[in-house]
Amino acid sequence: MQSASFVSRYLSMKRDRFHHGLQQAKRNKICYLFLAPYAILFFTFFILPIGTSIFYSFTYYNILESPRFVGLQNYINLLLQDEVFLTSVKNTFVIAVITGPVGYILSFLFAWFINELPKWLRAVAVVVFYAPSIASNAFTVFSIIFRGDAYGFLNSLLLKFGFIDAPKLWLTDPNYMMTILVIVILWMSMGTGFLSFVAGFQGIDKSMYEAGYVDGVRNRWQELYHITLPSMKPMLLFGAVMSITSAFNVCDVPRALCGYPSTDYAARTIVTHLFDYGFSRFEMGYASAIATLLFLVMILCKKAISSMLGRVGT
Amino acid sequence: MSEANTVKSNGTLRLMNGKKYRGYLQADETGAAFYRKGESEPMVQWKYVRLHRMDSIRRGGTSTQLTVILKDENRYIFDLDYGMKLYSFMDQHWVDKPVVPKTRGDELHRLAELRGEKIQVPKKHLITRRHPNRSIAGDIGIYLMLFLVGLAMIFPLVFLIGSSLKPLDELFRFPPTVLPQHPTSDNFSDLFVTMGQSWVPFSRYLVNTVLITAVGTFGHLVIASMAAFVLAKYDFPGGKFFFAVVTTCLMFSGYVTGIPNYLIMSRLYMIDTYWALILPAFAAPIGLFLMKQFMEGLPTALIEAATIDGAGQFRIFWSIVMPNVKPAWLTVIIFSVQSLWNTSAATVIYSESKKTLVYALQQIQAGGIARTGQTAAATVIIVSVPVIIFIFSQSRILETMASSGLKD
To answer: What is the pLDDT of residues A119-142, one digit of tens each?
Structure first.
């Protein structure tokens, strides 16, 4: 009896809340009008694709024929039989684990160092550090620097000083590819997150530093830990999201530098694998399964990082 | 008061006890005064030298507020018809601005006094410093490190520009040089010759890219700002949830959604049209995100005042909110330009005559080693546009990024 009344009370509460929400929605009709153009486009090009890829990941679909339901077959093939996929997962994780956290920490450190500079120098430094990522196609210059013959910049330099006696095939030898990729991606890693950090440092209330000094903060590291980091938390999370994005979406750089496909698939990443199946072999179902897995991994990563950052100051 | 350099504005003076007086505020180089309506003697009057702090001016909109706090803690709030002009005039002549200590010694003295100690530090110090608790060795280390890493960051770009200016014999000289000995613009002219011979002229790629970038960026700015405005300033069911979804989608770049997007676009008959690039760019999450975070910083009172004055939501958006978020415009523009300008779009556009600059670049690159110089020249052309935009809008962009934080 008691539980029944509890249920009915709960239901009426829900109903009231629903009616209240409806009223609010009616009152703010025009808000939805403002939101509509963006919401429709956003739904079409960001939400729908996620739904579509989950749907197609359970089918065999090659665009010409209509999709055929195959259950978990795509995932089973992907995880158990596709050795190239496993290589690509390994490569992506190596790149993500190195360039993600390292790029993130470097972005933060350099943003912090830059903040110590006088104003005019700071502006120059921000351009210098941010230029590689904003000029995202500039990485093609590395194909000249790391060219495999003796005219390549690195080869000729090493030859001249006698470190090597024959030119190395930096971009086609599987032994060197990953190292080169990591270097190039690190070069490009001072991106949006870096910019957010630079701005965050400038936005911190100066009187907090003064108060910190009065309270006995003696050096820059103490200041960083006790004052700066806690007030930068939101930027830190934003930067983390941005570096997850760039760490997992490595695609253009290996394709342009190491060839597509690369020797022995040594520079294959999850996204190039996805492109291979989607746009070269038109196995859309299989490609969708890859995309779905990638979505999952990225969301999990973000959750992990935000809970980690949540613990930082406390 | 000299008549020549006098600025005045009608308005209302509000005192702390809630009394209101109608009249006008008048300012010249030495001070300002408030006259009640119909009176010739000033009701309040002060010289700038006495002015202790002046803050909280709300720019734009229909009501412009100017708050003056005098040293004796008397607070005067003026609701003015043309506050902006008066404010900048007063700001210009206001002499009692807080004095910033110039040297390390001064700073240490000031901070020691704050702590109530007396310390022996020479008043004058050679090095001008912003922070007192920094070791010189650490500073030198940081400068050195920034310099070295900065060199490493800029080196590939310098090498790129150098390569684009090298004549052919220098491109293949052993050992190679970073900068050209005899700079030439041959590569650029060769580039136009090569591209002129292909059946789609180079200018066509350029026009395509400019068109896609311009339309995509403009539409994105308008559509994302509209959405950001209601998300930031109104509380309506579903708004918070929608924003949370957008934040999550910040992570999903065009690559991951490439395949399903292709499928959806082919259903919408958008493949091989400019729309395949432009429409997704309209909905880029990063623009909405930054815009919304920045708009949250706008005083809500501004919008409330306009609503009371009878302005519709669209008018508020267009003539009050948008002019006030100009720094955010630039940021949204640069991110949008950056992604559209650098798009190669090989997957959704097949017609040669609709392809973009970056695609053309990739084709030149495919020409192999003989095209090294031309590749470099094309890359320089592509890269320079976003970099130059960034250089000129840096301070505005940083202003926006300061509100970019994500709260979880």
So the answer is: 788 888 888 898 888 877 788 788
